[in-house]
Amino acid sequence: MFCNPGELRVEDLNVLAHINVFVDGRTQELPPYLDLTVNLLIDNQKFELCINLSHEYPDAEPDTFVRNHKLNKQQHANLNKDITDYIASLNRSEPCIFSAISWLQDNAHNYIVEEVEEQRIEKNETLVRYWIYSHHIYSKSKRREIVDLAHKLNITGFCMPGKPGLICIEGTTSDCNDWWQSIKSMNWKRIFCKISEECKDSSDNFLKFRAFDEKVFQNNNIKNNHMDMGELFKFLEDHQCGYIFKDIFGVEAKSSS
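-> structure tokens emitted (257 positions)
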């Protein structure tokens, strides 16, 4: 099954090597989570089912989300919510990837509808900044989607993967809300907007970032993928956002030396 070239893609082949070493008993260190993508052709439309398997799978739900370049943001959100709800309805002790694929093959056509191109009416929109906290951000597919969608919507900020995960987005209210609705529709263990800030005046100094990038603050605790909080605080300070650290994490920051 899925033996044709390009149908099944493992995002990082080194993870497979780590898994084999662990299964063979040559190490007790847990391997990273497995990231894979299943490429499906359904009604002549290409769908990508991106999957992140934790160590607890199948007792824990896999992180999944679906992409199709012809679906708009709302269609993507509806599709990902429905497939997430379907996976959640299945028995947790049984593998569910094939069931999810079958569901997608049976239902994908319901989300492909021709849309009339809408013209956006330009107006003076309020600028906002959202600080989004996640239990973890490991999936490389999700991380790519977070960045790609931010670039598409001209949103600035950053994404810090690992455990915990932190995302900052800033831009117009409509663009940030579109981004947030699409991203939160993916399957997450826990993700929420912890703090929102709004530009109260016409100040040009509200936006703190020039682009949107992924930021990795390396920590020696590689096993658990924890980021260096001191380096994060320094990064926030460099962008005049150091004040937000205590509000997000509940502790005073300590700069890395």
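The two ends are 52 Å apart (CA to CA).
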